[in-house]
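Replying to the earlier thread about multi-chain prediction with a worked example.

Input:
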Amino acid sequence: MKLFKHILLTSILAFLFAFYFQKKFGVFHIKPLDGIKELAVKPKLTLKNFFNLHYQDSFNLYVKENMGFRPVLVRTFNQISFTLFHTTKAPGVVVGKNGHLFIESYINNYTGINFVGKAKADRIIKKIKTVQDSLKRFDIDLLIIFAPGKASYYPYNIPENYLLRKKDTTNYTYYSEKFKKEKINFIDFNRYFIDHKSSFVYPVYPEYGTHWTPYAYSLAMDSILHYIEQKRKIDLPDFDYSRTYLSDSLREREYDIGVLLNLAKTLPHKPMPYPDYRFYYKNGQTKPDVLAVGDSYWWCLVGDDMPYHFFKEDVYWFYNKDIYKHNVKQETSVEKISFPNETVNRDVIIIMATEATFDLFPYGFIDKAYEVYCLSKDEKRKIITNKINADAQWKESILKKAKENNISEKQQLDKDVEFILTTENTPVKSPIWVYNAIIAEYMEKIKSDPNWFEQIKQKATQNNTAVELQLEEDARFVYAAEYGSEEIKNHLNEIRTRILADPQWTAQVKQKAIEKKIRFEEMLELDVKFVYDTEIKSKK
Amino acid sequence: MVFSSVVFLVYFLPIFLVVYFFTPKAAKNYVLLAASIFFYAWGAPRFIFVILATTTVDFYFVKLLYNAKTEKKRRLFLLLSLFLNVGLLFYFKYCNFFIENFNAVLGAFGSKDISWTKVILPIGISFYTFESLTYVIDVYRKVHKPLNNFLQYQLYIILFPKLIAGPIIRYHQISDQIADRSANDTVDNKLTGFFRFVIGLSKKVLIANTMAAEADKIFALAPAELTTITAWIGMLAYTFQIYFDFSGYSDMAIGLGKMIGFKFPENFDNPYTSRSITEFWRRWHMTLGSWMKNYLYIPLGGNKVDNKARLYFNLWLVFLASGFWHGAAWTFIIWGVYHGCFLILERMFLLKVFQKIGKIPSTLITFIIVAIGWVFFRADTTAQALSFTGKLFAFQFSAESYFLDAEFKFYFILAILFSFFACFKIGQRIQERIYFSEYRLGGYLAGTVTFCFLFLISLASITSSGFNPFIYFRF
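Result:
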């Protein structure tokens, strides 16, 4: 009997040690928890950080997150909580009715809990209208899109305690009503999807996913393309998404909330619709230059290559912070690039917002666009001056430069303000005809090479597209390869800036434009390219 | 370090137990002392030196007291030791409070504040100071001889299972065990000690933490958002939080002590089954009650005073001190006075009323009185406490009902069950069976499996969330 008790005691000690041994030796391979970016690292022990308790706090966190068998324990505990109590510990996740999961911010926007207030909303709407009109002068169409929201689409699946808090005015109701009144270019997919619910063949939302299904965003993309075609009076390439298959194997996006729950087993789910896309190009069709700004709903379209097939460039500013080109995050970010240069040559700028982020809309983009496109030069000078005066380091550099240049601080400040105004706050559009002229040169270059042109014809047949369209695409590709890299673009921008900052040089460009009987902008671009080619040649 | 942390459960505890169990008997106290010093230093690296220094000074003061030839000298050393211990407690715990209030008075008269840098409170100071006092007073009263071995004295004070939140163990209750605990060092005690530890861990992590999350939400509501129903839910949630938190910790301390051969006194005996406040204080934090009785109430005269006014005053004073012991804030003082007043009322007539009305009504009324008292204990300010208490009886109801999730409701029911099941004979029998009786072989096996499973659930709960508060830690 005593031996048996000792065996039990030994078992308990072995049990207590099991977690340490698993962490140390990794005897069992255990799938890590989902939704965790980085686990805490083991801190370094020093006398200082021991005495100020930093070591203990960091070590506690390290042990908690890296403990052996932790994923198993967490999944088991979460499964018990979910099965027995229909709750989850995952932050921001709401377990709804009929097996639906929501992200709380959707519900908060639906119920109006985080309504930004009429005063703030009115300011934003007014700015959007002004920006829309200003951009139009540069032949740019601003388009606001409200994607559908899971909470709005399935309000009957929201838990009662949230619905009790519903207010009369929400971000969505206020913005959508005002956009229509102010004649702001606006596509309301939220309303559209709710109104046509009964007509949809496939689910618009997965039960355990945040985002719309591929079926839903295919419908939306189709509408966006038609809108742009009507607005710009152009014909865009077409696509066919009628061939849709249902699959039990969900892609990550269709289970992205389910994954956050970290349950012991996958939740039973309905099959999801996945269209089999076909893209078509005909003669005369064009790909406009479209910049998309928005939250992760636009990402769904990017994930299926839609912007790549329909627009000149697949460029997307995620929350107006990170830049993605063809789904690759760029090293630079929105705050580091030249806002006027990156926007002025667009045909369409789309700002897409979802129910989850109506309170963050329009992500700071309109404020910046307003500053660049709507303010007078004097107003811009005032803003830049205030920015410099508010930055102690910047002010110090002004003082230093003034001493070096032997001018007063005010004179140096004015000089710097003027430089920033010209280079960072003044949009100068390279008209399409300038760019097209350069592309036309490349197309002639390809045509004059029989072998190259034969390759183009073969490619056109393979891609089921017109020869002229394939020729233009390849010409753009070659131009982009020679002049399209970030480094080269930055160099071209720098040269353009140099010219514009030098009044004498600018005057020379104007004179040449008059002599050649072309526009100033066209001459400027030709000179920029010339200077670049010369500088590169001389380096070689 | 707290018992309900991953570091303790997965690192400290298994390593300590293995080292301790395999250490020869002669060296066990050294291992235990080293582990205790490490345990305290982990959470309070600066204050370990304070506790080591004060135990050193205290030990030699008490030795001098014991060896003093005259009563005058004995009293001198007693006063010196009291001054040191109470002085340090006063400095670390109460200086901030007195300076703040003094500055408030100065401010009311338009005078300038006294400038003062806030002092940080060493963890567990209230507990180990009281234990130090029992040592010096028990030696002075000749209840027990002092320890010859300085390390044994340090071990008595710094013993980690009970160091930071009790039970408050009087010196004579443990003195023999420090020297020799081979009688309790059995495999049965090791097993049942583990079971008791896990019971405490589960009470704290599963029930107390769930109650705490809701209590915190409700106590953080603005007065305008607080309805009568919400106030009652908040009050009850905190009532169960504090019980399961503190009794859970005591269970863990007692269980750990048992595993290493110590028999610690019980600290809780189903306090919410009490039929009067008098009975409540015989069941709640029993070691504090015992300390107050032996070292404050009885020296003041206890029940043997000449007149009732003096008796009531003594009672009131002891509970004022109890409230103040819990925290340096007016809310704790009011809480202590509140209980003192009810004790006086019971002495006057209330006890007879409780006896007359029967078991269930008296239990319910006592429970509500205690629960209302906890509002003062929990509130951040007196104003908040009064406002909250007002809401309890304001009969303000709202169409928008306060939402309680299924998990809270489940643990709330469990809390009620475990708080009151000892009202019934079957509950008492189950409790006796699990806590105090000897197990049969099958019982040990079932216990090992059950409590390992509960340990896993508790550990899973801790590692799944960041919410793991512990109330009595701050005392």
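The mean pLDDT of chain A is 89.

Feel free to reuse this layout for your own posts.
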